[in-house]
Amino acid sequence: MSFSGASECSVPATKIEITVSLVVLYTQSRASQEWREFGRTEVIDNTLNPDFVRKFVLDYFFEEKQNLRFDVYNVDSKTNISKPDFLGQAFLALGEVIGGQGSRVERPLTGVPGKKCGTILLTAEELSNCRDIATMQLCANKLDKKDFFGKSDPFLVFYRSNEDGTFTICHKTEVVKNTLNPVWQPFSIPVRALCNGDYDRTVKIDVYDWDRDGSHDFIGEFTTSYRELSKAQNQFTVYEVLNPRKKCKKKKYVNSGTVTLLSFSVDSEFTFVDYIKGGTQLNFTVAIDFTASNGNPLQPTSLHYMSPYQLSAYAMALKAVGEIIQDYDSDKLFPAYGFGAKLPPEGRISHQFPLNNNDEDPNCAGIEGVLESYFQSLRTVQLYGPTYFAPVINQVARAAAKISDGSQYYVLLIITDGVISDMTQTKEAIVSVSLWRVWGVFSAAMEELDGDDVRVSSRGRYAERDIVQFVPFRDYVDRSGNQVLSMARLAKDVLAEIPEQLLSYMRTRDIQPRPPPPATPSPMPAPKHP
């Protein structure tokens, strides 16, 4: 069960096993910010350097900030910790453990005034079944005829069952035209998407007849499970397709055809965690819109407006995304730019100026450093225009061009009001980048550049990959005023595609993850002599 506050319908990126030298693990609710006990290790007697056997298995979502708290106790009784001695605690995000060197981090224990509490060593391991990919092929025989002037145009829809009894779509096959005996192409799907690691969880498969207007006709359904599907590695498996409505109405009803699982195989592939554990860094760059269309920063209607009580819309988006992605960049130095402003003292219009006013080194120290430089720029530059994306995209592309070994993956966050003046040049920049480099563009409001449905194209060339994610900020403003929840929802959708984009890049370049660095044992304290 996910501890992160995601709905049961969400599929975690993977499952992570945490090894900790502590007693009690707490997780924080995304909505209420309350800490809840997740689990406890066993008690180990008479040692200052316990190495616990019991592991914590957590659902890991790259796109969410999953806060953890580790409390360490000295317990006199194995069965009663109602009055334990508190030895210290550590706070950190799960992403910090994953993003640490070799997915290991060491943190000092705090919480006891005037006392050094020691340290806690955390390691993360991905469970093996999270990297499995199932490949299967199916055909059907004697399906019901649905089209008046033809036969049927069948396709399959796969659903994963959830713990609350609902179903979530996880795959659609292609449509095979005008036949009652279709043979679908083989397809691959992550096992976690099919059953979320539960091999006996119900998988429902619906059979439809495709219609051009989208009102597809239901032919029938059948259920199975990953465990049952896997039996097809040795033999064909035949399922009856049943239409519950027909079955109730017709006494002589047998079925609406059959579906046969022709083949089924399982392979393992490299995962996002493999690359991060092997040292791949996410190189995060920010570009913020300083054009006049954003409104006067002193007025509440402006996207740049900072009230005494809450962050501006732009600052909120930057903080939400940055606080998650910074865990995967070891030096925590982030280039940050503005565009569309007049710069002092001569009033030159710039479409790519460093927020820290340092042309030689635009890096800011941490997300707090980016925010500080952003606030300073708001006080010194004049919002102007027009809105050009291409200059800053090309700037990041030039940096990315210098690194092609997979050690870094470039992510550019563009925060804008969506009024763009150089769409043609921006498309050209995106297509050129996706053809030869390693990064993704994330915009707060540019639907035309999002390649989810139609790949971005320029002068007859198409982007090699979908590297743009459109997220309209207005959809993430919480009506109750809960800014924490708003930021969490925004970051979740902005960042959700990064793991698959990174994997897509690595696969197309045949770049394998490096082996994780060897563990460096922590120095053991010298024994005390009387």
Summary tags:
single chain, 530 residues, alpha+beta, Immunoglobulin-like, Rossmann fold, four-stranded antiparallel β-sheet, 28 strands, globular, disordered N terminus, disordered C terminus, C2B_Copine, C2_dom, calcium-dependent phospholipid binding, metal-binding, repeat
Describe this structure in words.
With 530 residues, this protein is of the alpha+beta class. The chain folds into 3 domains: 20-123, C2 domain (Immunoglobulin-like, Sandwich); 132-268, Sandwich (Immunoglobulin-like), CATH 2.60.40; 273-509, Rossmann fold (3-Layer(aba) Sandwich), CATH 3.40.50.410. The protein is built from 11 helices and 28 strands. It has helices spanning 94-99, 191-195, 226-230, 244-249, 272-277, 313-325, 366-380, 390-401, 423-436, 483-495, 498-508, and strands at 14-20, 24-28, 35-40, 56-60, 67-74, 85-93, 104-108, 119-126, 132-141, 154-161, 167-172, 187-190, 202-209, 217-225, 237-240, 258-268, 281-289, 333-339, 341-343, 348-350, 353-354, 363-365, 382-383, 408-415, 439-443, 457-458, 461-462, 468-470. Strands 17, 18, 21, 22, 24, 25 and 28 form a 7-stranded mixed sheet that branches. Strands 4-1-8-7 form a 4-stranded antiparallel sheet. Helix 6 runs antiparallel to helix 7. The protein is globular and about 85 Å long. The two termini are 49 Å apart.
